[in-house]
Amino acid sequence: MNNQHHRITTLVDGVFAIVMTLLVFDFKIPHLSEAKVDTLITAKLWLLWPRFISYVLSCVVLGIFWIYHHNQFRFIVKVDRNLLWINILFIIAVAFVPFSAALIGEYASHKAAIVVYGINLIAIGQVLYLHWRYATGQYRLVRKELSEEIIKNVNNRIMGANIFYGVAVVVSFFAPAISLLIYILVPLYHVRPTKYKHLAGEEKNG
After folding, report:
1. Confidence grade of residue 195 (pLDDT, cut at 50, 70, 90)
2. Any idea what the Cα angle at residue 11 is, between residues 56 and 62, rounded to 5°?
3. Which percentage of the chain shows pLDDT scores above 70?
4. Residue 131, Cβ density class (10 Å: 0-12 exposed, 13-18 middle, ≥19 buried)
5. What's the rounded mean pLDDT across residues 179-191?
6. Are 100 and 117 in contact (CB under 8 A)?
7. Which of 138, 150, 156, 181 has its CA 20 to 30 A from that of 30?
8. Alpha-carbon distance 135 to 94, whole Å?
9. Residue 76 forms beta bridges with which residues?
């Protein structure tokens, strides 16, 4: 990895680490008098379950986006000014997650919170898609030996997830609970068995 690659990935890694840490700050310890702790603490903690789900889900989704970004740089061999700005846009979208996650954790049954969260995830995915499309378009920043199969595989997986998120946003206007279920299930789409890892290994050894 050259120095430009290292600076970009180090910056992005740092942002992801900070953002994922900030997610846990949405949890607040219930304030109870000493006499009421034993009787009320369980009920108060139970009220935090939407935030807990939002926290776990957001950490998993951010982890998936980080892996995609990391894997893209396994194939990107050059960096130009435009790619730098695309990475800045990626960071902006990622850094918004603590707010959108806190919003849906507090108002999980309200469509406004569901829509904001979905749009945030769509924005991250779209910038990541732009990142890959720009780097691979006309083999601009990747080796010409990179197979079309890998390029299309990455494109399809990112856009496929964004389609699901888009559906969740639309469905939230009619059935918010179904939208939440879609958000929870989309990570399974990302981690499902794929030829991508195998292809990446072949490309690296080729």
Report:
1. low
2. 15
3. 81
4. buried
5. 90
6. yes
7. 181
8. 20
9. 142
Contact 186, 60 (CB under 8 A): no
Distance (Å) of CA 98 to CA 17, 57, 115: 12, 12, 15
- Structure tokens of 53? 């789900």
Q: Is 114:104 a contact under the CB 8 Å cutoff?
A: yes
The tens digit of pLDDT for each residue in 49-94 reads: 788 899 999 999 999 999 999 999 999 999 999 999 999 999 999 9
The two structure tokens encoding residue 84: 């730098």
pTM: 0.87
d(CA 185, CA 164): 9
pLDDT at position 44: 58
List, in sequence order, the alpha helices (H) in 110-195: 111-136, 148-171, 176-191
